[in-house]
């Protein structure tokens, strides 16, 4: 890799692209910088987003879960629309197929999963493109939706004194990935090659398997996003990890964030995999990424709005927004405060 590109990093490259873009068409309400672009082309603002999933980068076909991969391909885009408080409508699929390495039955299972997720979210696949790939399966999906009153929730709306909240729990996707990488498979017995200590019983195995399902087929928080549209001052989905995604909120809002380590809701699967592999569950929760929960700021308690829209969905106050240069700091359980390193970067590597 070019050292200059490595030094720039994934988000630096995005900033470089953003700095070179000029408006050449009317209707750009909000371009690069949020989970979805906001386009003023009708009575209700249009939301537009695109995500890519690449074989051997985001998934392994050897895991043998094409139906779940189809669901995830759409779900990661649905999560972007959820973070804007919007409603998803239309999808376009770009499909690069390694024809010498894949069977039609696998593609049919992938499409079945995609259609299942589309039916569950009210989305119609209206077009796209297909081509032959020489570097594994390439998935690129664009999703269009619409903003709902009172308007899209941007990353730039946080104010000093707002609390920082997250839905659900964190670290499940990272724990699920660790389990898959070590040979654990949904529906299969515990692999012989992975030592199983005496403390890891049925309940512990169950939460690890739950974490794997979360990684393979995340659940986008569409109903929660809509409920928070009138409550959240700023919002983002947790795709890169809270450490990175809180940083995005800080940069767009021009504020600092203080996160409370003791209040991070850690998925039990992350606690089990952390103990099994000697890794810190808190690090998995903060930097693992791909949980697709909603991270948001609010001046008032969001629990009543969420309880009415999504009964049983947990929400945790994990920090606060403060005046100051954009930065994210972690208040440890021992009372110390330290900068919180960002999570995964496609050009710089892991945290």
Secondary structure elements and pairings:
Layout: H1 3-20, E1 28-30, E2 37-39, E3 46-54, H2 66-83, E4 86-97, H3 104-121, E5 124-132, E6 138-147, E7 163-167, H4 172-181, H5 202-216, H6 222-228, E8 232-237, H7 242-253, E9 256-260, H8 268-277, H9 281-287, E10 294-298, H10 303-309, E11 315-322, E12 327-331, E13 337-339
Parallel strand pairs: 4-5, 9-12
Antiparallel strand pairs: 1-2, 2-3, 3-6, 4-6, 7-10, 7-11, 8-10, 9-11, 12-13
Helix pairs in contact: 2-3, 2-6, 4-5, 4-8, 5-8, 6-10, 8-9
Quick summary of this structure?
With 351 residues, this protein is of the alpha+beta class.
Commentary on this structure:
This protein has 351 residues and is an alpha+beta fold. The chain folds into two domains: 3-147, PurM-like, N-terminal domain (60s Ribosomal Protein L30, Chain: A); 163-339, Phosphoribosyl-aminoimidazole Synthetase, Chain A, domain 2 (Alpha-Beta Complex). It is 35% helix and 24% strand. The chain has ten helices and 13 strands. The protein has a seven-stranded mixed β-sheet. Helix 2 (66-83) packs parallel to helix 3 and helix 4 packs across helix 5 (202-216). The longest helix is centred in the N-terminal third of the chain and has 18 residues, at 3-20. It is globular, with a radius of gyration of 20 Å. The mean pLDDT is 92.
